[in-house]
Amino acid sequence: MRVTGLPPYDPNNVFAKILRGEIPSKKVHEDEHALAFHDINPQTPVHVLVIPKGAYCSHADFSAHASDAEIAGFWRAVGKVARELGLEAGGYRILSNMGEDGGQEVPHFHVHIFAGRRIGRMVPREAG
Ligand code: AMP
What we know:
Elements lengths: L13 H6 L7 E4 L3 E5 L7 E7 L6 H7 L2 H17 L7 E4 L3 H4 L8 E5 L13
Antiparallel strand pairs: 1-2, 2-3, 3-5, 4-5
Bound molecules: adenosine monophosphate.
């Protein structure tokens, strides 16, 4: 059963194409469960995306349907990428946008890793 209200996974989304090697990426890590690469439009001096290899459209989908091994492998990869990029001393932020209110643009679950400067407020002030 899929998560109610979510569209089905689109195999033509840009991260699916990166996983299939159809478009290039600046890869920083790859293992059985995850791929990590530099964001094409970095918001901080270090801005890396970590994606699971499975076809999950969002965190809602991933957390509900991925196996324990996929979830453990993915989150260990997030930590490993940050560690191997040397981000632990200065610190970093991880973030995942989900759905419309979360501002998710690419419908393949991904975690952003931001680092390299003081990132500021957790959530920008906005009316509403
Ligand atoms: P989100 O808004 O959380 O869905 O984030 C999508 C992210 O994917 C944005 O930060 C984009 O800059 C990034 N992005 C889109 N296309 C590519 C690409 N081909 N390679 C690397 N990053 C990309």
